[in-house]
Amino acid sequence: MSFRNFFAVARTFALVSFFALSGFLVTAGPAGALTAAATVRDGNSIQLGDVTYRLDGVDAPELDQVCIDDHADPWTCGVEAREQLTKLINKRPVRCDDVGPEKRFGKRHRAICTAEGDKTSLNEQLLKLGFAIAQEPIKANVKPAAAEARAASAGIWKGCFVAPQEFRTGKKDGALLGAACRPDRDKEIRAALFPEDLTMPPSCSIKGKLAVRARVTGNIGIYHLRGCPSYPATTKPDRWFCSEDDAQAAGFRKAYNCRRPK
Questions:
Q1: What's the confidence (pLDDT) of residue 11?
Q2: Distance CA 19, CA 43 (A)
Q3: Are the C-beta atoms of 39 and 47 separated by less than 8 Å?
Q4: How far apart are CA 178 and CA 73, in angstroms?
Q5: Distance (Å, rounded) from C-alpha 233 to C-alpha 127?
Q6: CA dihedral over 63, 117, 108, 171, signed as positive or negative
Q7: CA 17 from centroid of its chain's CA atoms
Q8: Which of 113, 142, 135, 131 is nearest to 52 (CA)?
Q9: pTM for the model
Q10: What is the β-pairing status of strands 221-224 and 252-254?
Q11: Along the chain (262 residues), what's the average pLDDT of each consecutive run of 10 residues?
């Protein structure tokens, strides 16, 4: 090999090494896995370290979402879904196998997550308990658990509810799901599922309003923080959020007159 060719090869190797160490090269193959103590954010979102994962193929009721039970009484099914996921984890380390970014939920990633010592993923377990539904198109790995819960009227399926996606977007005329949905009580049921005064979940004081003008920035609504001029004027929020990250992940932008409280 001539000196010139040797120098060219060495220079190429040095450049490749520099970019690899700088994080500019993306390795092929499946995304990585992370095992750590888990913080449950909501019914199908958990945080490991500084990464928030949504359970892949699963959609649980939002924390501020209302369902009705088999006695036609409203209940905070989103809060209960979070509690069920917390119980499934039971303070154990969780392994999340990253399957890619969740484009509809900000910087969050989708993952198949399993608590230490379990053979079945949290994705499947939550579906089987009936505290989440399978996302469309339904994936093969969660389809049996989803079908079993629906057939057994487990969890939220024993009552009546709307799909979390339709609750998030305020689609009040969407399909009613569950064993206790009565066509002759359609109007009353929808009024209960979309109350005019939505109850604030504990420690979730950020107000969200669906707004057509938010679509200019690619959002579906606007959120208002305590201390903002617009906060007291927003008397009937469409959504309640626990953090700005949650609001942004749901497609809401901060009110322009809003500044972070000191």
A1: 52
A2: 39
A3: yes
A4: 14
A5: 39
A6: negative
A7: 38
A8: 113
A9: 0.83
A10: parallel
A11: 47 43 34 90 94 95 96 94 98 96 81 97 97 90 94 97 95 95 95 94 95 92 94 95 93 86 49
145 Rama class: left (phi>0) / alpha (psi -120 to 50) / beta: alpha
Predicted pLDDT of residue 252: 95
Peptide bond into 137 cis (omega under 30): yes
Q: How far is CA 48 from the centre of its chain?
A: 14
What does the alpha-carbon distance between residue 17 and residue 13 come to, in Å, rounded to a whole number? 6
- The C-alpha atoms of residue 188 and residue 241 are separated, in whole angstroms, by 26
Here the tokens at position 32 are 């990585």
**What is the amino acid identity at position 152?**
A
Q: Which two tokens stand for residue 75?
A: 């209940």
Burial of 82 (0-12, 13-18, 19+ CB in 10 A): buried
Asked if residues 243 and 232 have their Cβ atoms less than 8 Å apart, the reply is no
Structure tokens at 128: 């089987």
> At 16, which amino acid appears?
V
Instruction: Return d(Cα 95, Cα 37) in angstroms, integer.
Output: 9
- Calculate the alpha carbon distances from 142 to 241, 243, 253 in Å: 28, 29, 32
**Cross-strand pairs, 45:** 42, 54
Q: What is the pLDDT of residue 29?
A: 33
Question: Rounded distance, CA 80 to CA 156, Å?
Answer: 10
